[in-house]
Amino acid sequence: MSADKVQALVNYYAREGQSRHIQTVCNEVLRKRPNDPQLIFWHAYGLILEGSFSEALRELNSAPVDDDSRLAVLAGMIQAHQSAKIVDDEAVVELQGRLEVEEGTANVGAVVQLATLYWHTGLLERGRGLLERCLRSHPDALDAQCV
């Protein structure tokens, strides 16, 4: 299955709130592409939606990170920490600082992935701001235009 089809399925299931289906799709494709950072991230996002915050954090901490998934992994870790019963405020502040620094130097793929995560988590204005900033500097970025 192509990366675009997998992302479309993940987007659909995330929009519908079907966390188990997100995990299933990612697990199926991870059998063929075991170290795909974006699939591992979306699998962990499914765990966050399900309420398995510590498992999601373990997965995100040990996941291989590429340029396109780096920002989304940081934002996912922030969401998992903030959603847990006992919030690790120190870790949240550190991760937010890293996210702010890396947002400024991120490539188009990373910004699109982060904006997609924000879309699913309901932070629409923050995602829109990222995409608008991205499109000002890269007006021909099709991925950013599509989100």
UniProtKB/TrEMBL annotation:
Its GO biological process terms?
A: intraciliary retrograde transport; protein localization to cilium
Of the GO CC terms on this record, one is: intraciliary transport particle A
User: Can you give the residue ranges of the Tetratricopeptide repeat protein 21A/21B N-terminal ARM repeat domain?
Assistant: 10-146
**Residues that span the membrane, as ranges:** none
Against InterPro entries, the record matches this protein to:
ARM_TT21_N, TPR-like_helical_dom_sf, TTC21A/TTC21B
The name this protein goes by in its record: Tetratricopeptide repeat protein 21A/21B N-terminal ARM repeat domain-containing protein
- Which species is this UniProt entry from? Tetraselmis chuii
